[in-house]
Backbone:
């Protein structure tokens, strides 16, 4: 199922769900991406200021991709309820 994410927190939550689905812990994902476990933790918690390159490395390691499309009418709170 596609996931909608509009905030850093929602992106981090989506990454966490996929990481766990794959049976990985943060250190495992860090090894796959050559990122520190603390960086993985910060991204998953929605810490602002994450570099786009970091997001792309995590997407690749989790076998995910960004899809750009017109915005749906649901607001962020309604999207949170989906998950």
Residues:
């Amino acid at each position: 199922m596609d996931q909608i994410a509009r905030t850093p927190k929602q992106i981090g939550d989506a990454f966490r769900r996929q990481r766990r689905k794959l049976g990985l812990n943060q250190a495992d994902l860090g090894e796959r991406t050559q990122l520190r476990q603390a960086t993985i933790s910060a991204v998953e918690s929605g810490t602002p200021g994450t570099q786009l390159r970091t997001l792309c490395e995590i997407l690749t390691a989790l076998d995910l991709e960004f899809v750009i499309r017109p915005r749906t009418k649901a607001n962020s709170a309604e999207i949170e309820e989906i998950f």
